[in-house]
Structure to design on (592 residues):
RNA sequence: GCAUCUGUAGCUCAGCUGGAUAGAGCACUGGCUUCCGAAGCCAGGUGUCGCAGGUUCGAAUCCUGUCAGGUGCACCA
C-alpha cells in the first residue's frame, strides 16, 4: 500500500508534468504550518527559477489542474508560491484502513539484505558498566529497525576476550591459588571441567590484578608473558581461559537479558585469530602492507582527505596483533560465513579514526565488495548532571546493574505513591518502566551527541519520557479492555474507513494523520540509523492521542458506527506504539 | 599545530538534504475530575538560533572567517 505522502506526491507530480514542468517539483512534505494545512508542496518556488516564471503562477496552474480531485478537501496556492494541501477525511480514514490491514503497517521493505550489527563490545571478565550502555541500547535498536525493514540482521556482541586482562587474571589466580594444576608445569593430565572460581570471585580478581599491575612491574611483566603464552596456545592457560569465558559469559548474558538486549552471535576477538597469519601474509605478498618504523602498516590516505591520515597498523613492531588486526580478520571471517551487504559498527565516537582506517584497509585489500556498505555509528558520552562523564559519588565507574537498580527503585517508589497494586506486580512493572525510562532517555537524543543522564528527571517521568509513552499505551489498553467488557466486541479494523462523511473533530483528524505518518518515519529512521526519530514520532503520536482522549468520550459515544471507528483508530494507534517501542527495545505493561 | 564534532528559551533537547510566525519538555502561573486512568489535558510568557560576513526571492539550516567547549592525531582497546 502506498503511503499518504506518496499518494499526494503522485498526484502533484502528474500535475507538474501535465503543466510542462519536471515532475520532481511535485515533492510533498508534512506541513510546517499545521494551522494552514496538513501537507505542503514547495515545488513551485523551486521551479520558478528554472522556468523563469513567478512561483505563484506555477502554483496556481497546479491548483487548477488538481481541482475537483476528491482526495483533497482544500488545495490552494498561497504567496509567494506555497501549495497548501488539506486532505479529505474519508481519504485519510481509507488510508488508515489500508495500513491496518498490513502486517508491517504500510512500511515497504525492499530487497532483503544481510546486515551485521557489531555492538555491545563487552570485555570478558570485566563487569558491564555505564560506558557499555549506549552501545547496547543504540545497537539493539538499530538491529531491530533493520530487521523490521525485512533484512537478515545478525547482531554480534564481539567480545573483548583476547587481551591483556586474561594474562592479568591468570597471574592473579596463580598468586592466590598456586596449588592449582594449571600452574603445575609438569602436569599432563586432563584439566578439570569445573572452573576454579565463581563469578563473584572473578569480579573481584580482575580489578585487583589491574590495580596490582599498575604498581608492580614484575607482575605486569608476568601478565604480559601469560597473555602471549595463552595466545600461542598454551594448554593450561587455554583451559583456564575457557573457564573464564564460561563463567563470565553466563553473567554477561544475564545482564544483557535484563537490558532486553539479545545477540545472535557471541563471537569475540579470539575467533578472528586463526585468520590473522594468512591475512598478514596476503597483505604483504600483494604489497598492500609494508614495513614502517618496525611495524607493518597499510596506507589509507586519499586525495579527498582534508587532513593527513596515519596509516593503519596491522602488526606491531613486536610482532603482536593490534585492534585493527583483529577487526580486519573479523571482517574476513564474516565475509566467509555471511557475505554481508552492510556492516554497522557501534563504538564511542572517539574511535572514528580507527574505523576509517579499518574500512579503508578492508576495501583496499578487496576484503569487502565495493558496493558493501560500511557504517560506523560513533556515539557520544553519557554525562552526569554536572555535564562531565557519568561517575559514582566516589568517582568510580558505576556498574550497569546498579544503574538499572537505582532507576527501578525510583520508579517503584513512584508507582507506590499513586496506586495500590500488589508488591510483586509493582516490582515487575517498575522494571519495565525503568528500562523504558533509561532507553528512551538515551535514544531520544541523537546518538552522536553527548547527553546528560539525570535519574531524577527520568524517575519523575513527566513530559517527553519513556514512561509517558507507556502511560499512554496503558490508557489505551484500559479503554479497549473496558470496551470489550461492556460490548463483548473487540476492535474491528474494517471500521476504520468511514462509509459516509461526517464531522470530524480537529483532534481526531490530528490523531489520524499522526498514525498515518508511521511508515515514513520508520523508513527514514532505519535508513538514517536514527532511533531518536522514532522517539520523536511516538511522543507526537502520544500527544495526539491524549488530546483526542480528552476531547472525545469514547466509551460513552452513542453513535455506534462512530464509536467502532474510534475503537479501531485507537487500537491502530496502540499497535503502532507497540511496534515502535519494540524497535526501541522496551515493552509496555498492561497496568502501571 | 592540524583535523573533527558541538554551540538553539533559565535548564534538558528537537528542528539542520534552505521555505511561511524557530518548536517540545522541565521549571513558573492560571484553569479542567458527578463520565473511558489527572503519571493527563487546556491556556499563558520566555529566544542577538555563539559572533561576523557571504550565497539566495528566502538561511537556525548552505559557504567563508572567527570565538568558546569537547574529542582525535602510528604500535591501548
Amino acid at each position: 500500500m502506498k503511503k499518504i505522502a506518496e499518494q499526494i506526491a503522485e498526484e502533484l507530480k502528474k500535475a507538474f508534468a501535465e503543466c510542462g514542468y519536471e515532475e520532481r517539483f511535485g515533492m510533498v512534505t508534512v506541513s510546517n504550518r499545521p494551522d494552514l494545512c496538513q501537507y505542503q508542496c514547495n515545488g513551485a518556488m523551486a521551479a520558478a527559477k528554472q522556468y523563469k516564471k513567478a512561483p505563484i503562477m506555477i502554483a496556481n496552474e497546479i491548483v487548477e489542474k488538481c481541482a475537483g480531485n476528491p482526495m483533497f478537501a482544500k488545495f490552494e496556492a498561497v504567496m509567494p508560491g506555497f501549495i497548501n494541501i488539506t486532505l479529505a477525511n474519508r481519504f485519510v480514514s481509507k488510508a488508515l484502513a489500508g495500513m491496518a490491514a498490513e502486517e508491517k503497517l504500510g512500511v515497504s521493505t525492499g530487497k532483503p539484505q544481510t546486515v551485521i550489527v557489531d555492538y555491545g563490545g563487552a570485555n570478558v571478565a570485566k563487569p558491564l558498566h555505564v560506558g557499555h550502555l549506549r552501545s547496547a541500547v543504540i545497537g539493539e535498536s538499530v538491529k531491530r529497525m533493520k530487521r523490521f525493514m525485512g533484512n537478515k540482521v545478525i547482531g554480534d556482541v564481539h567480545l573483548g576476550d583476547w587481551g591483556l586482562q586474561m594474562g592479568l587474571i591468570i597471574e592473579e589466580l596463580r598468586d592466590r591459588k598456586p596449588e592449582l594444576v594449571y600452574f603445575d608445569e609438569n602436569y599432563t593430565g586432563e584439566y578439570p571441567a569445573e572452573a576454579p572460581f565463581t563469578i563473584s570471585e572473578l569480579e573481584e580478581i580482575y580489578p585487583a590484578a589491574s590495580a596490582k599491575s599498575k604498581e608492580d612491574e614484575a607482575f605486569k611483566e608476568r601478565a604480559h608473558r601469560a597473555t602471549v603464552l595463552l595466545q600461542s596456545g598454551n594448554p593450561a592457560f587455554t583451559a583456564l581461559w575457557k573457564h573464564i569465558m564460561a563463567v563470565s559469559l553466563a553473567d554477561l548474558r544475564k545482564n544483557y537479558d535484563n537490558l532486553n538486549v539479545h545477540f545472535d552471535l557471541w563471537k569475540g576477538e579470539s575467533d578472528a585469530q586463526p585468520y590473522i597469519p594468512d591475512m598478514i601474509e596476503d597483505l604483504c605478498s600483494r604489497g598492500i602492507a609494508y614495513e614502517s618504523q618496525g611495524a607493518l602498516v597499510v596506507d589509507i590516505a586519499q586525495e579527498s582527505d582534508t587532513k593527513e591520515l596515519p596509516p593503519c597498523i596491522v602488526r606491531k613492531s613486536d610482532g603482536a596483533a593490534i585492534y585493527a588486526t583483529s577487526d580486519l580478520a573479523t571482517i574476513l571471517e564474516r565475509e566467509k560465513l555471511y557475505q554481508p551487504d552492510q556492516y554497522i559498527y557501534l563504538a564511542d565516537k572517539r574511535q572514528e579514526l580507527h574505523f576509517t582506517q579499518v574500512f579503508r584497509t578492508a576495501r583496499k585489500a578487496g576484503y569487502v565488495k565495493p558496493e558493501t556498505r560500511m557504517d560506523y555509528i560513533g556515539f557520544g558520552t553519557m554525562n552526569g548532571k554536572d555535564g562531565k562523564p557519568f561517575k559514582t559519588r566516589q568517582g568510580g565507574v558505576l556498574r550497569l546493574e546498579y544503574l538499572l537498580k537505582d532507576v527501578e527503585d525510583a520508579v517503584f517508589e513512584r508507582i507506590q505513591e499513586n496506586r495500590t497494586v500488589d508488591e510483586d506486580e509493582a516490582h515487575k512493572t517498575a522494571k519495565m518502566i525503568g528500562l523504558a525510562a533509561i532507553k528512551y532517555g538515551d535514544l531520544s537524543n541523537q546518538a552522536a551527541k553527548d547527553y546528560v543522564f539525570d535519574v531524577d528527571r527520568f524517575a519523575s517521568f513527566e513530559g517527553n519520557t519513556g514512561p509517558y509513552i507507556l502511560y499512554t499505551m496503558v490508557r489505551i489498553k484500559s479503554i479497549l479492555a473496558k470496551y470489550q467488557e461492556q460490548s463483548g466486541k473487540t476492535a474491528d479494523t474494517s471500521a476504520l474507513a468511514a462509509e459516509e462523511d461526517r464531522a470530524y473533530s480537529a483532534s481526531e483528524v490530528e490523531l489520524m494523520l499522526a498514525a498515518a505518518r508511521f511508515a515514513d518515519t520508520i523508513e527514514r529512521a532505519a535508513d538514517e540509523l536514527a532511533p531518536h526519530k522514532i522517539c520523536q514520532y511516538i511522543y507526537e503520536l502520544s500527544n495526539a492521542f491524549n488530546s483526542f482522549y480528552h476531547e472525545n468520550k469514547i466509551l460513552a459515544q452513542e453513535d455506534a458506527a462512530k464509536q467502532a471507528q474510534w475503537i479501531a483508530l485507537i487500537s491502530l494507534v496502540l499497535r503502532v506504539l507497540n511496534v515502535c517501542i519494540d524497535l526501541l527495545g522496551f515493552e509496555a505493561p498492561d497496568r502501571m
